[in-house]
Amino acid sequence: MARRIEIALRNGVRDARGERIKREIEHFLHLSVEGVRTIDVYTVDAELAEDDLVKAASEPFCDPVIQDWSIDRPVATGFDFLVEVGFRPGVTDNVGRTAREAIEYISGRPFAAGEGVYTSVQYLLNGALSRTDVERIAKDLLCNTLIQRFVILDQAEFMAQGGVPVSVPKVTAETRSQVREIDLNVTDEELMRISKDGVLALTLDEMKIIQAHYRDPAVLAKRQEMGLSDKPTDAELEALAQTWSEHCKHKIFSGNVEYIDEHGNREEIKSLFKSYIQRTTATVRQQQGENDYCLSVFKDNAGVIRFNDDWSLVFKVETHNSPSALDPYGGALTGIVGVNRDPFGTGMGARLIFNTDVFCFASPFYEKPLPSRLLHPRRIYEGVVEGVEHGGNKSGIPTVNGSLVFDDRFAGKPLVFCGTAGLMPATINGKPAHEKHINPGDLIVMTGGRIGKDGIHGATFSSEELNENSPVTAVQIGDPITQKRMTDFLIRARDRGLYNFITDNGAGGLSSSVGEMAKECGGCRMDLSRAPLKYPGLDPWEILISEAQERMSLAVPPAHIDEFLAMAKRFGVEATVLGEFTDTGIFHIEFGERTIAYLPISFLHEGLPPMEMRGVWEIKRHEEPAIEVSSDYTADLKQLLGALNICSKESVVRRYDHEVQGGSVVKPFTGVANDGPSDAAVVRPVLDSFEGVVVGHGICPRYSDIDTYHMTANAIDEGLRNYVAVGGSLDLVSGLDNFCWCDPVQSEKTPDGEYKMAQLVRSNKALYDYCVAYGIPLISGKDSMKNDFYDGAVKISIPPTLLFSVIGKIDDVRKAVTMDVKRPEDIVYLLGETANELGGSEYFALRGEIGNNVPKVNAEAALTRYRALHRAITDGLVASCHDLSDGGLAVALAEKAFAGGFGISADLKSVRWSGDSTEKNDAVLLFSESASRHLVTIRPHHRQAFESVMGECGVSAIGVVTEEAVLRIDGLAGTPVINERIDELKQAWQSPLREL
Amino acid sequence: MAKARAIVMTGNGTNCETEAAHACRLGGFDDVVIAHISDLLAGEVRLDNFHFLNLTGGFLDGDDLGSAKAQANRLKYAKVDDLREHLLDQLTRFIADGKLILGVCNGFQLMVKMGLLPAFDGRYLTQAATLTFNDCGRFQDRWVYLKTDSASTCVYTKGVAKGLYLPIRHGEGKFVVDSQATLDTIEAKHLAVFKYSDSSYATPTMEFPLNPNGSVNAIAGLCNETGRLMGMMPHPEAFVHRINHPRWTREELPEEGDGLILFKNASEYARKNLL
């Protein structure tokens, strides 16, 4: 019988978790509670000696200084309502897993099959609350009913029942191992029903291609030999659906597009990916000639560039949007630990050196009504921030750079970008570490976690819009510790040369990882009955496509398998041989003796013809807002500093360990009080060297409302100018693109698909134009194309969003520069020109306007200036440097001043203007978001040297740093248009998100 | 010549091993070994061969049962494969041999929860204090000023004039004791080596964020009466060079970071007393 162990804090011990819940109930649900206390519950479902159970309760589960324990005796007293929240069956329970291991150490024997420990938390609420209030607290705050369940009891019920009844969330399905066949000789309607009901996300055309395959006599003859009929098995259909999903196959980026511009000119584009993204890199590499530093691009889980003779740098950024919309904590946690496996599974494997995160949310203060399936943006914010916090911190990888971007359209789907960089030796055992090969005969080995029903249909589900019926099984919860153990082990196996090939088990599970690996050598034979399962009851197709986390797939030569498995055992990591790689040309899957999938590799990977799409561009004119003329813009500046896209994100950033591994050089916050916003991060990955990695990013979805071409140009420029601002070298720099789009394929559900496709085409064109102009090769990237919510009535599409990440090198980190002003008397220079470009700006957004004059990037002029700036930084001439972005010059001046703790006195008359001089006025000069600009400060004695390095690059001295802690900006009329103490400005900037 | 040897124990979620080993090398240890706990449990690496044990920061077992609890349990019950002894036996022998242990962050949590600190009168393995959730309820990464107790017998802080400036990075760093008597003894014996303080290292403080977790008496680090065992929440290994400092681009700083002295003192002590 299952036993309940309860762990409660002793009287008088502060319950920080309870206090936080109390604050959140008051803050977000506007209910007043007197107090919240918490109790941890372990439900132990295992045959244990009483003595061992007491040891478990009193030693590992209980901290004797602050806690008491009890077994099968409820300890809750003195509450008005009690809510107990536990996991649903089959959901990953990390604490339960650790608790089980702790008991195994005590009892000295492993748990038997079916035995387990399950955790839950009791919240004891006091206050004048109704049951309805408590239900709201349970559903809207304490429990995500998708993955958790709750029990509510008042004091009387609790007494009557003798506490919370024991409940064991064990998966109790029977072992079935069924294989079904699906008859595809049916009507078109029936084909679509099969696709839809099965969450296969296959279109009618795709279903018909599969139908045709199973009518091919040659195929059928081979199948007959294997004992298979003319009908596909469920495993085959699922493998095809997974491999052909938008998520895995990138059909939109590899399809054919007929593009028509605003003048009616037609253009045939064969694959956006090949035409723009791959071609960008090819062109840049050609330009670089001998200096080409790309080592492995677009062919592995992450991109690889040369860092120096001894080390190679690996980088990947992924999104995990759909799962985060359903379960913000689990989805985001899986996002970060999932992207960790990309650099880890690149080449022969890389040590992970930092994470970057960018989140796009609707306002946490959102007050409009939401469709029922959508979680409130504040819950998404909380859950995502915490999920990535746990995933990153517990993995021991510093989170060094990121952003929070707000737009209410992200209520339809939040965007959760997680990036990870790694470092691998240039060579391992004499071979380039970024390369790997499989030989037929190598064994298929899966390591790490076990397989469960979690994450079934993740790949296909995220290839559709979010809707009422999005499947609950699509959500996984990551386990950073299981993954850390696995990576500790695999790095050692790598260095001993025990495997030939490694890759990640992510979307699509074994079907995807082994399917991709089989392509390398020409086939595989895998027996799914050998796969370790979390619990019985999985059908073979579920084992094949489950996205249960923390797994890597490897090719291990038979000669090394004994050593590999022995080492895994010693590290406490599960490793299982599932079959072997072959050169038969067949993706051959068995379950025991029986063949359950027999798919030609060529059909699996090449059987899908390119999608045909159309994009029609039109220029949408927005109303051009009149710019208010005023003699004082101080209030506008303060309002801007408090805008969600500009204000301080310190309350979030401090929750992320940005210093672990000891290499942090430019931290997220800088300045006299460690609270000024850094432009980019500098990290020293090898501690006895001063060579550093620089990482920054650009993202500006608001400009998509005007033109995605310029949105993209600005994102690239912003990424690069952030990178340059801290000292990043232009001689070793690369880019990584992450497209997050709303569905751009014309259909009944998407009547404006042709416009959205044109937006995508234009974004790609800019990507090519600007990366080539800047000499930035793209080394990797990802696209997520279905970021919409649609429930049949309400449709919410995100604004087309490109995250452009920039990663490269600084030769000597001791030359790095931060954004805070350093000393009074230093001269303030503005680099670059300002134009009437308020279109899509934060200044217009404050007024609910968009405008039309989107900032345009002049890459040639910018690159010349960035090179000169880098020279000035390398020469040690630059005291501080900050990029101008959201909010323009006024915001950048304010941030520089309050970060450094000094004032600035500046004059708008000295700002270099570009364009029609009649459009020049104080508001435009202050708030225009013209691209490619930096603010730097220079010690007076460096003035001449600095100006001579910068030459004709569009540089003007616009002011001076002052002892007096005031930001004073004189307007064109010669009188101050902004005049405010820096502590007031800082307060405006820090207050909006400080308490979250 | 005999070598001063340091070991950094890793595995199951520790994550500061690289920089801890780097700090040991910079501090003057001749041999520094990063040993996975599986190497120790397999008997391939033995604590007996080292002078200085580093229990580093991280998230042992994900802090799932409370920080470091599962590792404390593992060390107590896990047997070493070939020697028929528990790993704990090696650890107690290590202490009895007069050797050095430094626990940082998760390592400090482990030492306290195993009862290695404060361990009055050599009563090791009896827990008298703990480290629990920060009062602010959140993980925090921020730099703190640590006033050192110059009257302490601590081996590591010898020569520290006023205090150290170091980063903390934890969610469970609030130091709590089981009784007033324990606290009084800690204070009377000058065991609270580090206290969160104002920026001039003048007075200990309970004020957030200077005191980032609400620790009783602002205690950030603790040693035992021998001065050889020390645990602390802040990370000395994270500040060994001036460019680790959050304001290195604006302040005149010595080349060496504040945290390095702890490792230098450890190696010096090992050389004088343990070789």
Automatic annotation (TrEMBL), chain A:
Enzyme category, top tier: ligase
GO biological process: 'de novo' IMP biosynthetic process
Localization (cell): Cytoplasm
Residue ranges constituting the PurM-like N-terminal domain according to the UniProt record: 300-424, 678-788
Pathway involvement of the protein, from the record: Purine metabolism; IMP biosynthesis via de novo pathway; 5-amino-1-(5-phospho-D-ribosyl)imidazole from N(2)-formyl-N(1)-(5-phospho-D-ribosyl)glycinamide: step 1/2
GO molecular function, one term: ATP binding
Annotated binding of Mg(2+) 2, by residue: 342, 504
Reactions listed under catalytic activity: N(2)-formyl-N(1)-(5-phospho-beta-D-ribosyl)glycinamide + L-glutamine + ATP + H2O = 2-formamido-N(1)-(5-O-phospho-beta-D-ribosyl)acetamidine + L-glutamate + ADP + phosphate + H(+)
Sequence ranges assigned to domain Phosphoribosylformylglycinamidine synthase linker in this UniProt record: 191-251
Pfam family, any one: FGAR-AT_linker
Binding site for ATP: 316, 737, 781
This protein's GO CC annotations: cytoplasm
Keyword vocabulary terms for this entry: ATP-binding, Cytoplasm, Ligase, Magnesium, Metal-binding, Nucleotide-binding, Purine biosynthesis
Active site (UniProt): 247, 320 (proton acceptor)
Cell cycle in keyword set: no
Binding residues annotated for Mg(2+) 1, in chain numbering: 318
Catalytic activity, EC: 6.3.5.3
Origin superkingdom: Bacteria
Domain PurM-like C-terminal: residue ranges: 440-585, 823-968
Residues annotated to bind substrate: 341, 476, 784
Function summary: Part of the phosphoribosylformylglycinamidine synthase complex involved in the purines biosynthetic pathway. Catalyzes the ATP-dependent conversion of formylglycinamide ribonucleotide (FGAR) and glutamine to yield formylglycinamidine ribonucleotide (FGAM) and glutamate. The FGAM synthase complex is composed of three subunits. PurQ produces an ammonia molecule by converting glutamine to glutamate. PurL transfers the ammonia molecule to FGAR to form FGAM in an ATP-dependent manner.
Family the entry assigns: Belongs to the FGAMS family.
PANTHER family (UniProt xref): PHOSPHORIBOSYLFORMYLGLYCINAMIDINE SYNTHASE SUBUNIT PURL
Record's subunit section: Monomer. Part of the FGAM synthase complex composed of 1 PurL, 1 PurQ and 2 PurS subunits.
Record protein name field: Phosphoribosylformylglycinamidine synthase subunit PurL
Organism: Geobacter pickeringii
UniProt gene name: purL
UniProtKB/TrEMBL annotation, chain B:
Leader sequence segment: none
Pfam families reported for this sequence: GATase_5
GO terms of molecular function: ATP binding; hydrolase activity; phosphoribosylformylglycinamidine synthase activity
Top-rank lineage group of the source organism: Bacteria
GO cellular component: cytoplasm
Residue stretches in coiled coil: none
GO BP terms, alphabetized: 'de novo' IMP biosynthetic process
Swiss-Prot/TrEMBL keywords: ATP-binding, Cytoplasm, Glutamine amidotransferase, Hydrolase, Ligase, Nucleotide-binding, Purine biosynthesis
Stated name of the protein: Phosphoribosylformylglycinamidine synthase
Organism expressing this protein natively: Geobacter pickeringii
Taxonomic lineage of the native organism: Bacteria, Pseudomonadati, Thermodesulfobacteriota, Desulfuromonadia, Geobacterales
